[in-house]
Each structure stands twice: as structure tokens, then as C-alpha cells.
# Entry
Amino acid sequence: MKLLVYLLMFSSFFLLSCTNSQNVKPDIQEIIVDVDNMAIENVSAFKQFRFVNLEFGDESMLSDIAKVVCCKNRIYVLSTEEPTVFIFDAMGKYEKKLRKGQGPGEVVFVSDLGVYNDTLYVLDSYRKIKLYDLAGNYIKDKQTFEQPFFSVAFASDGMYLFDPNINKNQIIICISFQKREKIKLFYRKINGLTM
# Structure
């Protein structure tokens, strides 16, 4: 009898947990790309490339490289092992890394970086944009956000910040460089965002 009760409980739990729930889709335009009928050109992703051996030392031990940006005879490397930015010259000689800490010009956890108009933009702790010159000298804190952002990208109209979707927000915003204001917001409004 006990076995029958356990079997009925297990069966009803199993059947109830397998019900089909409705998929709620946000109001997003779906774009379908037919890759079978696309003409693909045989072109390289880069016009030119060369190998650079980066200097290895006590201050420049790299692992888990997340991003590399080359600009104006410098190489900027973001490591997730030691979440900071390492700066090398074009020949691979180590110059410096952004200092870790919580003081002015220091970083806590660099989550992304980019270079725009001879300025190094650093996304620190997913919530703060800090500006440095190309040599890695601190300029100022530019922006602080309430929500976390995973990455930063640049286009002619501004800086784009991408939400990591930790809280299922799916937010992408664009901050205009010319107007110094939020100019585009995709998917969902951001409440309490200071621009």
C-alpha cells in the first residue's frame, strides 16, 4: 500500500512538472538569414597581421586573455585571471598595467575596455566607465551606472553598453559623444539610470 501511495505521488509530480507553459516573447523583430543562398566572398578578416611576442615578467604574467586592442603603437590586453589592463608597446615590450585598488585611477575588476578618440575607456566592476590616456594615465571617472553592463563598444554615434542579462533585462544603451546624453535604448527602459 505504501508503495502504491509513493508511486502515485511520484507520477502526479512528474506529470505536473512536464506541462507545457506558454513561451512569452518580448516584442523583438525576428530577422531570418538564409545562409544557404548567401554569396560569401573569400576575404580575410584582416588586411594584414603579424605576430608579436609580449614581454613576460613578474608584472606582466598573462593568462585567460579576454580581449586585445591595438591602437597607436600600443597593445592593450585584458586578462580575466588578474582583471586589469596590461599595456605593451607595438614591439611587445611591457609598459605598465592599470593599478588595482579603490583609489582615484585604480581599478577593481576590469570587465571590458575600448579605445575611442585617443582615449582608453575602461568598464570597471561592470558599473563604472573610467578614462585613461593611451599611456594608461588616469584622466577621470566618466560615468557610474546602477545596473551592471558586461561590455562596451564604440561607433561614430557614441558608446554602446551591453547588459549581461543577469537580471533578464536585455538592455543595450547608447550614450552620444556629441550630446553627452543617452540617445538610444533597446529592448527595455532603464529606471533610475543617471546619464
Notes: The chain has a mean pLDDT of 76. The two ends are 67 Å apart (CA to CA).
